[in-house]
Amino acid sequence: MLNPSEVSAGDNVEFTPHELDRQAKFYVAGHRGLVGSAIMRRLESAGFTNLVGRSSSELDLKDRQAVFAFFEEQQPRYVVLAAAKVGGILANNTYPVDFLSDNLQIQVNVLDAALAHNVERLLFLGSSCIYPKAAEQPIRESSLLTGHLEPTNDAYAIAKIAGITQVQAIRRQYGLPWISAMPTNLYGPGDNFSPEGSHVLPAMIRRYDEAAAAGAPEVTNWGTGAPRREFLHVDDMADACLHLLENYDGPDQVNVGTGTDVSIRELAEMVAGAVGYNGDMSWDTSKPDGTPQKLLDVSKLTASGWTASIALEKGIAETVDWFRNNAHVLRS
């Protein structure tokens, strides 16, 4: 197992990606969240037998002493850092301090503890919001730090950029083969469907499903409907994570997405069809649109041998079914 204390500053990473040991201890931070739970499912299906997860009530990742004690006790060989405070435009714009402070604390504590306890392979998960608002489309990994961020979620983006930088710094200083991945907009089973904290797709699913059930004549959506967004099913994201851990090594973050996008208006039409809503839709243009377009260049990921497999319409239909089957236990 790699030992940071035996690596001098400035050494290059010497590592050839390979199949991970299915019996090794594997910690997924944030294992009950949208991404973390999907990663746990994927690892289980791939034959990993020593998976570790802790809920926020069992381990507060903002508590540095508790995080170090956990790593001391468990000594995981592999780590995926999927834990984060997340939310949509409204939540990010309303509580920027929380999104900055909480995520910085989580990241620094987990990454420092992983370094101190000799974690061999680590994947840090960020977000496509790290890229400049006016970045050339599709967005390449090299666009990072080349322009101003989208103001409605800049605090969250800064925290994620800090995480990428810390991973890169650990590679440079300690020679450890840690990597970062930047997913596009994710959706699927386990998502947050709450009206105040959800992202655009789960928010739409809830809004249109409730409208269909109530026979509402009209549904009002935020913004103009013109912005274009890329959506990736969380099960595809989980599959990409395992693929990257076993097939990629490098200092640059890797974009994870489908390489295609739709307008928010088109998305609303898909959701309406999936839930069986036949009423009218309107657009509240007083609400922010956010970035006009956010489509990732996924050529690096594609070159490594991975592409998404779940079509958006199929994924939305499956997510609607999951939402309806679990509505009684979802966050309100």
Overview of this structure, please?
The protein folds into two domains: 11-188 and 231-259 and 297-309, Rossmann fold; 200-228 and 262-294 and 317-329, UDP-galactose 4-epimerase, domain 1. Helices cover 40% and strands 14% of the residues. The protein has ten helices and 13 strands. The strands form four sheets. A six-stranded parallel beta sheet has the order 2-1-3-4-5-10, sandwiched between helices. Strands 11-8-13 form a three-stranded mixed beta sheet. A two-stranded parallel ribbon has the order 6-9. Helix 1 links the parallel strand 1 and strand 2. The model is unreliable at 4-11 (pLDDT under 50).
Q: Could you give a quick summary of the protein structure above?
A:
Helix content is 40%, strand content 14%. The chain has 332 residues and is α/β, with parallel strands linked by helices. Helix 1 links the parallel strand 1 and strand 2 (51-52).
